[in-house]
Amino acid sequence: MHQTFNAALEINLLHANQAGADHNRSHFDEWGITCFNVMSSPGAGKTVLLERSLATLGAQFKIAVIEGDMTTELDADRLRQYGVPVIAINTGRSCHLDSKMVAGGIHRLAHEYNPREFELVIVENVGNLVCPAEFEVGEHAKIALLSITEGEDKPLKYPIMFQAADCLLITKMDLAPYLEVDINQIVANVRQINPYVTIIPVSAKTGEGLETWFEWVRRQIHQKSEHQLPLSISCANQ
Amino acid sequence: MHETDMTKALIMTVKDWWLAQPDKPQVSQVHLTVGKFTCVEPASLEFAFQVQTRHTFLANAELIIRETPLIAFCHPCQQEYRPEIGIQYACPICHSPMEDIRSGRELKIDRIEYNSQVESYYAPNL
Ligand SMILES: Nc1nc2c(ncn2[C@@H]2O[C@H](COP(=O)(O)OP(=O)(O)OP(=O)(O)O)[C@@H](O)[C@H]2O)c(=O)[nH]1
Ligand SMILES: [Zn+2]
Ligand SMILES: [Zn+2]
Ligand SMILES: [Zn+2]
């Protein structure tokens, strides 16, 4: 006997990824870690920003980095020079990190170190302005970077990332004098879709804006530690 | 390229459902709702689905996508409007930012159609 049935699912097609992200987040919460997901188009300056951030914040907080890269460990090696654990994840042909890949990184971190010692885990996503924003990895905040060289229209053309961001860094500000880019227009375009996002213009080269960024990071870490919940989770399927 | 990953995510989610079914039924159709304000292009998703489901439990399944428009609600104006994706998202009347999205962000598996034999039958473990 053969019969046709209908199952009303009504579930998000990213459900499996979301479940993984929730798993990761409960690890972070259990260990008292704040996690950032740093995203941008290729070359906007994520790795250089992390280098500058590790140089300063590394002295105040215990930080680890989960570094997503399609094929190489080049960025991971750069960051290792700052004396922090860097877990490199090669995504192969995927253009973003998903929660499962990041779970692999988290479990490795927990295996090789005492995860309770860490206060901040920074996930550097694969350079791509489109879909990293749809794939949560368990972060507490999304940091988007847009370099000033990319032009005013990017927030309008790739709105999802800018809508999802908690903090937007407009990078490479030192190059602004050489370009015909109107930063006020960038800000206005972002505000159309995300009126509350914190926007910080920075230059990793001159140091402009970096102290404002560090202060934002410190505040996130402190807010997190004030809302500590004792949790215990299992990783049966990992 | 991200449709490849979206499709992987979709297949994983359907597979979770399928594995929870005691008789591992034959899926014939997967119905999706995809909003215009997502990073998914339906044609690419359909293509990726065909390619990625080959030789899997979804090999004979058809993907059916319903698109929903981007609709936002402006609170100052107390009315809905349709932002122009890529051009303008703020309210065309009062220029308030787009805050309250009523439609267009869906990435949803609505329902699955499947054939099931009433007697139990063997399904290869994929
Ligand atoms: N002038 C200037 N150049 C910068 C700045 N920040 C980064 N760059 C340059 O931009 C290029 C890319 O920087 P990365 O930090 O590697 O960019 P990324 O976002 O990590 O790149 P992917 O990981 O490949 O996506 C490098 O040549 C940097 O030196 C800045 O503030 N000013
Ligand atoms: Zn786990
Ligand atoms: Zn993608
Ligand atoms: Zn209005």
Count every beta strand of chain A, where a strand is a DSSP E run of 2 or more residues: 8
Low-confidence residue ranges of chain B: none
What's the CATH C level of chain A?
Alpha Beta
Helical fraction of chain B: 10-25%
Small molecules held by this entry? guanosine-5'-triphosphate, zinc ion
**Shape, per Cα inertia axes of chain A:** globular
Helix content of chain A: 25-40%
Biggest pleated-sheet summary of chain A:
7 strands, parallel
- The number of helical segments of chain A is 8
- Average pLDDT metric of chain B: 91
**What would you call the shape of chain B?**
elongated
What order do the strands of the largest sheet of chain A run in, or round the barrel if closed? 4-3-5-2-6-7-8
> What's the helix-strand series of chain B?
HEHEEEEE
Which class best fits the helix and strand makeup of chain A? alpha/beta
- The domain count of chain B comes to 1
Q: What is the number of beta strands of chain B? A: 6
* Model regions low in confidence, pLDDT < 50 over at least 5 residues of chain A: none
Largest interface (CB within 8 Å) is between: A-B, 37 and 40 residues
Describe the structure.
The complex is a heterodimer of chains A (238) and B (126). With 238 residues, chain A is an alpha/beta fold. Chain A has one domain (32-221): 3-Layer(aba) Sandwich (Rossmann fold), CATH 3.40.50. Helices cover 37% and strands 21% of the residues of chain A. In chain A, helix 1 runs parallel beside helix 4. The radius of gyration of chain A is 19 Å and the shape is globular. The longest helix of chain B is centred in the N-terminal third of the chain and has 18 residues, at 2-19. Chain B contains two helices and six strands. Chain B is an alpha+beta fold and 126 residues long. The relative contact order of chain B is 0.24. Chain B has one domain (5-9, 28-115). Classes of the chains: A alpha/beta (238), B alpha+beta (126). Bound molecules: guanosine-5'-triphosphate and zinc ion (3 copies). One zinc ion is lined by residues 23, 27, 103, 107, 235, 238 of chain A. Chain B: Ni(2+) binds at residue 2. Chain B: Belongs to the HypA/HybF family. Chain B: Zn(2+) binds at residues 74, 77, 91, 94.
